[in-house]
Amino acid sequence: MNVTGIFPALSTPFEADGNVSLTGMKHNIRLYNQTGLAGYVVLGSTGESVMVSRDEADQIYAAVKETAAAGKILIAGTGAESTAETIARTKRAASLGYQVALVKTPYYYKPTYRAEHFIHHYRAVADASPIPVLLYSVPVFTNITLETPEILALAQHPNIIGIKDSSGSIQRIGEVVAGAPSRFQVLTGGAAVVYPCLVMGGRGAILALADLLPEKCVELYELFQQGRHEQARQVQLQLVVASKTVFGENGIPGLKYAMELRGYKGGYPRSPLLPLKEEKKHPIEMLLGELYPAAARV
Amino acid sequence: MNVTGIFPALSTPFEADGNVSLTGMKHNIRLYNQTGLAGYVVLGSTGESVMVSRDEADQIYAAVKETAAAGKILIAGTGAESTAETIARTKRAASLGYQVALVKTPYYYKPTYRAEHFIHHYRAVADASPIPVLLYSVPVFTNITLETPEILALAQHPNIIGIKDSSGSIQRIGEVVAGAPSRFQVLTGGAAVVYPCLVMGGRGAILALADLLPEKCVELYELFQQGRHEQARQVQLQLVVASKTVFGENGIPGLKYAMELRGYKGGYPRSPLLPLKEEKKHPIEMLLGELYPAAARV
Amino acid sequence: MNVTGIFPALSTPFEADGNVSLTGMKHNIRLYNQTGLAGYVVLGSTGESVMVSRDEADQIYAAVKETAAAGKILIAGTGAESTAETIARTKRAASLGYQVALVKTPYYYKPTYRAEHFIHHYRAVADASPIPVLLYSVPVFTNITLETPEILALAQHPNIIGIKDSSGSIQRIGEVVAGAPSRFQVLTGGAAVVYPCLVMGGRGAILALADLLPEKCVELYELFQQGRHEQARQVQLQLVVASKTVFGENGIPGLKYAMELRGYKGGYPRSPLLPLKEEKKHPIEMLLGELYPAAARV
Amino acid sequence: MNVTGIFPALSTPFEADGNVSLTGMKHNIRLYNQTGLAGYVVLGSTGESVMVSRDEADQIYAAVKETAAAGKILIAGTGAESTAETIARTKRAASLGYQVALVKTPYYYKPTYRAEHFIHHYRAVADASPIPVLLYSVPVFTNITLETPEILALAQHPNIIGIKDSSGSIQRIGEVVAGAPSRFQVLTGGAAVVYPCLVMGGRGAILALADLLPEKCVELYELFQQGRHEQARQVQLQLVVASKTVFGENGIPGLKYAMELRGYKGGYPRSPLLPLKEEKKHPIEMLLGELYPAAARV
């Protein structure tokens, strides 16, 4: 299973009453189908998966599955705190047609967890999973970092095909590329470091920013593939600025507001996340106006 | 609602096959009923609540409710990431006979969360809850600390009766006691700082260590109540050492092993937590042998 | 050597032109001589020791020595990054009449330093020092915490008489009191936790706040000595609020401004520390007005 | 002043008796003179500057100055906690013939320092300095990170020519390249991220690893300059592994041991740093054997 290229970490649009907007979700997918995105990641951190019930998750999985264009790779976020629940979610996603499981680290009992706990957990999940597993290290949310030794140990498992590393550390990407079998695929979760990741041997990226700027993200990937380094650098610098402006202190609410400006369905976040404040909107509007002078909309 | 005194943060015993041992849970409650514990806290961090399904939670709530002696205050851990789910769990616990909801902070989107998010979240929960709410700040697991300003703001809400502060900061306990209305009750989650908490004006403690050493914890509380400061200090020093030995790097698996030694049902933890390693058992056995020379068992 | 009681961590007043105000220093000492302070700590963190040259340090040591009343214990901050320089400063302070050396941890090479480095460092200093040594753990400035195992190892050294622990952790104070020989003296550096430290078996405190409120700090200590717990708690709560108000985000510039209000010589801080901003002054003025209604001045 | 290319952050060799080995220093410089290194950085973090007296610093400055080949750019680490001392050291270095001052952030009073303190400090230093100033952010040692807004503010100063960013964050390098005037030069301090830094628009690197592997570091730089990306990536992966092996948990003592193996004068570190333990030596010997199969020595 090849997970190269750019994948959006799909956000989940909610209605004002708090319900999932499956219509909005499908609207977005139809727009994304027209781009060079390699596939879709459903219910990762950007998808507010920790806010969503199991029933809602099933509906979201189904909506994306039925709307995705042929050939788009479907990746399901299935990580839970317990090993058993993670396996159950992974099997469920596989039965609904998902091709890869993105499994974030457990994190609640961080003072007790050691490398051996993560190795034990991921091996059990990979052994039980009918589909290939991607490790997922996202310390900004979990305060857990998968370090190089445990990643390299897990890279030996035949059903673990790679990692999404959202730590932002390009050094670790280098260490993993240098130490893992070449079949092990490294993707970054940081829109600001896609190009550095690629030059070090990473295969692609899973990005919240690709919900908003899929064409730019794909363009960067293709420029790199073509060896057009200076142009790639220029697009990367645009993404650096865009990422800072949209997310910065805003997080998901910033993304959702920006998506609406471009004609996507961003929708509401779920509480305790709150809609973007008025005073935070202007920089995002300015940014989109600069990136798309004629029309900021899709 | 008065939540003074010592409450155990109940651990949840699992069988070797991973199922919840309701029999074990009831066994423990029957033993605790004979002590001076003020009540029971079900499905907090020590109860592995993040490992437990909603159906299992219902069974655990019911098992403790039906076994608890009259007069024991029943507190349910009901915090979830989303405000809506927290309210749903709180209402469910209230309907099952629980008297107080212990609500940990949301934490996943920590780079976005500010004081205003916590204030908004807790107010919504307290407004909707049929039972009084205790704030719960447990940075060791969540990396979120409720700071004094937001605590004092929330202390004004008529349905928020206090806080379990597991940060270990006695300074913050002082700040809250100095700044909150006197009806606002401060409890510590740290077995090593119960006595310092009490001398500063705290009302009691919710302790994992009270699963193992309920008599000692209650003794400390009573000695303080009687103004026997030097004896209280001596018992506190015992709890300092016991807490370090049992938990230390071991966490919940250490507690579960120690509970078995004393005749309680500790059971297995859920993966990715792993049973205590052989080489970690000896210090715990030594500790219990010193605390209870004649017999370490109940 | 007995270091019980309350010691001010003396601030160093600078003139507007950046020179040390030895006159101001002596003025303060004369005022402090009239209080129940147990002695003086010169050139600790509050004294901006990292901003002061060796020549200036000598002048400051001499000024305090010549002004201090008989019986006041003189403690010199002598910690430097290198072991050799720490020993040199310690010998110098001893030769100038100082009775105890307060030695902060080395900290610059923190990714390399392990417990063994601290043990090696302190043993070398204590072996070479003509005067007794106090360990000094101040993670707020150094990001290094002396943990209980290394403290207990060092507590065995005959020339190491105790520790100033400024971490604010009352748990660690309990661990050290429980594990160290009774001759080993634990002092806190946190004005907000003096009373909790004392009830756990600590001997006293070295406090920046005692530069400003020496009488209140001494009063707390004496109330505790007399077993007047409720009154001690009340004074401690006053110090909690005062400490937050004066230092909070202000640090040393807040202290210096407040000292001037009470008739002490606070003087200027050294750049990059900056004088207190106008908008930060009012809360300090309010606090002193409440503590000393008739007159906020000495 | 152009600071592009690779600069070694020179280590300072000490004799067994603790004295600076000026002979060793000169021996190293003579070897480095034969490489493509762009110049020398004296008394940065790797040079144990915090362990060195002002007199020793003068001798070291002079030794490097007199030995350096013509055309090698001389950069002096001159950062101290106080603004005044930093200016004094900078003027001294300039008077001894140094061309650039590398000024690390102040850090001791980190709870008080805000962006404005760093801006004030650096502007005062740059105003007073007869030579151009490089900012230096090294959070691994200082726990202070210069963030993009203050870097961009300082990049406007005519006497601040760039930054050595040792945080390892390639995202920040992108942000600074995107936001600063093109004359502002960004260098990384991380040997594991030189190539990613360069592709993002950085100008070079100041590296402890360049004390040991100057040819490899220069080779990487030149491959990038020639647009030979795949070869640059391969050399970067070698440096990733080398950096982890030499430094890892070893720090400066690992570097010093490795330098001796290659014929440089590594010498002893100063206490509390301790010579490399026996069991840590083998991986370094293996690494050098693999990098230089015929002979690991210069």
Structure summarized in a few sentences:
Chain A is built from 12 helices and 8 strands. The first copy, chain A, is an alpha/beta fold and 298 residues long.
Strand order of the largest sheet of chain A: 1-8-7-6-5-4-3-2
Distance between the termini of chain A: 31 Å
What is the CA-based Rg of chain A, rounded?
Answer: 18 Å
Morphology of chain A: globular
- Average pLDDT confidence of chain A is 97
**Helices and strands of chain A, in N-to-C order?**
EHEHEHEHEHHEHEHEHHHH
What about the largest sheet of chain A?
8 strands, parallel
Beta-sheet strand percentage of chain A? 5-15%
Assembly level: homotetramer
Structure summary, number of beta strands of chain A = 8
Greatest interface: A-B, 37 and 37 residues
Helix content of chain A: 40-55%
Query: How many individual helices of chain A?
Result: 12
The helix/strand class of chain A is alpha/beta
Low-confidence stretches of chain A: none
Structure description:
- The structure is a homotetramer of 298-residue chains.
- The first copy, chain A, has 298 residues and is α/β, with parallel strands linked by helices.
- In chain A, 44% of the residues lie in helices and 12% in strands.
- Chain A is built from 12 helices and 8 strands.
- The first copy, chain A, has helices spanning 22-33, 54-67, 83-95, 115-128, 139-142, 148-154, 170-179, 194-199, 214-225, 229-246, 252-261, 281-291, and strands spanning 5-8, 39-42, 73-77, 100-104, 133-137, 160-165, 185-188, 204-207.
- In chain A, strands 1-8-7-6-5-4-3-2 form an 8-stranded parallel sheet.
- In chain A, α1 packs parallel to α2 and α10 runs antiparallel to α12 (281-291).
- The longest helix of chain A is centred in the C-terminal third of the chain and has 18 residues, at 229-246.
- The radius of gyration of chain A is 18 Å and the shape is globular.
- The model of chain A has no long low-confidence stretch (mean pLDDT 97).
